[in-house]
Amino acid sequence: MRMLAASLIVAGSALVGCAETGPSFRGTEYEAPAAVEDFTLTDHHGLPFKLSDHEGAIVLLFFGYTHCPDVCPVTLSTWTKVEKLLGDDAERVRFAFVTVDPERDSLERLREHMAVFSPKFIGLGGETEDLEPVYDLFGVSHEKIKVSTSAVGYLVDHSATAFLIDPRGRLRLKYEFDAPSEDIVHDIRSLLKSAPRIHVEDAWSRPTAGEDGVGVVYLSLINDGDVPDRLIGVRSAVCESAEIHRTFRDGDSMRMAPVEGGVEIPARGRFAFEPGGYHVMLVGLQEGLQVGDRFELVLDFEESSRLTLTSHVRRP
């Protein structure tokens, strides 16, 4: 299992030379941000937590245990302040606490412990064989230390680092347990400001007849962020392939052609797929589309990763 313990540069004086090319962070920045290998653990409600399902949000990750008397509650208390200071922006952050003590940290125990700090915090557990690869992925150390003179039985020595994964699923920053909440908020807001914020309006399709046919999807992409993004691909289980096409006039004729390289959604703007212009072509439909049907599409973006939406089949 590869480790994401890549070389780091310390925020501050070491970043002065980079100030013109990106935001200045207060945490410790990874010199070459890399996508985190996907993993799945179990959250404190007993549901799967798959990292890739949270692309588009910031994930703040810490490894600790509920019987920890000092470092872990300090970190969670800092997160409580971070959540409060972020206000509405906290909806775009996942605060995830991964246990290093699966022997005692049942899902119920994690659920009770997270509730002490915030109902939005996520406790992650699972079997040892599921947790160990995640520890290795982040280079997290953990060691059970028996304490014969204490009623607690044993303590766990472990890494005291919080990791920040950006909306594109890349490991960007790390923080020591005593990092000020204001520093973490500053970095989160810098990343959110520099990220596109795409949502979809009015996705619909025309009815079609029979299998192996061709369908179409129209929609509007709205970018509420301060930087542009690019739609680079579309997928759907209802067809063999989905392609971005454009209809345009060529003399007295109307032509259609695939669009190479995708389409750009401008910052604080929109891009419309509409009749007589850009559209998504569904090639090799598995069956006909009838009025009232609904089906899912997955949109892949250059910056904001992917977005799943539902298209409604209706008459024009």
Q: Could you explain how this protein is built, in words?
A:
Helix 1 (71-86) crosses helix 4 (181-193). The chain is elongated and about 90 Å long. It has 4 helices and 21 strands. The strands form 3 sheets. Strands 12, 13, 14, 15, 16, 17, 18, 19, 20 and 21 form a 10-stranded mixed β-sheet that branches. With 316 residues, it is α+β, with helices and mostly antiparallel strands. It has 2 domains: 8-193, Glutaredoxin (3-Layer(aba) Sandwich); 198-313, PCu(A)C copper chaperone (Immunoglobulin-like, Sandwich), CATH 2.60.40.1890. It has helices at 71-86, 107-117, 128-138, 181-193; strands spanning 8-9, 28-35, 40-43, 48-50, 58-64, 93-99, 122-125, 142-146, 154-158, 161-165, 170-176, 198-205, 214-223, 229-235, 239-250, 253-258, 263-265, 269-273, 278-285, 294-301, 306-313.
Summarize the structure.
With 316 residues, the chain is α+β, with helices and mostly antiparallel strands. It contains 4 helices and 21 strands. Strands 12, 13, 14, 15, 16, 17, 18, 19, 20 and 21 form a 10-stranded mixed β-sheet that branches. A 9-stranded mixed β-sheet has the order 1-2-11-10-5-6-7-3-4, sandwiched between helices.
